[in-house]
Design a protein that fits this description.
This protein is of the alpha/beta class and about 210 residues long. It has one domain: Rossmann fold, CATH 3.40.50.150. It is built from six helices and nine strands, in the order ααββαβαβαββαβββ. A hairpin with a 5-residue loop joins strand 8 and strand 9. Helix 1 runs antiparallel to helix 2. The chain starts with a helix and ends in a 10-residue tail after the last strand. About 40% of the residues are buried. Bound molecules: S-adenosyl-L-homocysteine. S-adenosyl-L-homocysteine (SAH) binds next to strand 2, helix 4 and strand 4.
């Protein structure tokens, strides 16, 4: 598991590309500049780790495109020490970006294989989530709510009510909503009862699957 100068150089290029594509939050760019994305990829794809694209990670899932990770993280508007819930741990890449920002991370994954892999792999890189859970993200993690930010990293056919309920006042839920194409949607909880919704552009995610167990 090496982070060579070659990888670091390519990664800095990618960060510049993200900035050119409109990512303005320097903390997010710097955090992504520190996470060795190539180590989260299947070996056959390692060479493409610093191309701004999504790639397969097994179990029919993908590691999100870097631009998407950057945009969603920026929209969360989180600060050091905030408690964040991630739905869809996948490779653990987004989890690591959140940890690099100094947040306390809870993450849920419904594919056992990916959950187990992330559980073993993240600590090897020194990334310690507060909780990595195997379960259904539609339910959130009610036992640990409220969260200062909630990020859904799979395409949701609808907005799960429990996620809105688990958001702290002042927090943002960043969720791509739609079937084939998703609209990046941010819900801000302005008070106990008031949510404000803003829509950003179109994105494409693997689907947020409903549990059949
Ligand atoms: N954040 C991940 C993105 C992985 S893709 C990364 O950085 O690599 C989306 C992930 O959401 C997949 O791993 C998929 O298995 C997971 N997922 C899909 N439906 C889910 C659900 N209902 N609950 C939790 N995770 C889910």
């Amino acid at each position: 598991m090496k982070d060579s100068f070659r990888h670091q150089g390519k990664r800095q290029q990618l960060i510049k590309t993200l900035e050119q594509k409109g990512i303005a939050n320097q903390d997010v760019l710097e955090a992504m500049g520190r996470v060795p994305r190539h180590l989260f990829m299947d070996s056959g794809f390692e060479d493409h780790a610093y191309v701004d694209k999504a790639f397969p990670i097994g179990a029919d899932q993908t590691i999100s495109q870097p631009y998407t990770v950057a945009r969603q993280t920026e929209l969360l508007e989180i600060k050091k020490g905030d408690k964040v819930l991630e739905i869809g741990t996948g490779s653990g890449y987004q989890t690591s970006v959140l940890l690099e920002l100094g947040t306390v991370v809870y993450s849920v994954e419904r594919q056992k294989e990916l959950f187990k892999k992330a559980q073993l792999f993240l600590p090897k890189l020194g990334y310690r989530a507060k909780r990595l859970t195997f379960g259904d993200g539609y339910k959130g993690m009610p036992g640990f709510a409220p969260f200062d930010g909630i990020i859904v990293t799979a395409g949701a056919p609808f907005v799960p009510e429990p996620l809105l309920a688990q958001l702290a006042v002042g927090g943002h839920l960043v969720i791509p909503v739609g079937q084939k194409v998703q609209i990046m949607t941010v819900f801000t909880r302005e008070s106990e009862k008031k949510f404000v919704k803003i829509e950003y552009g179109e994105f494409r995610f693997v689907p947020l699957l409903e549990d059949k167990n």
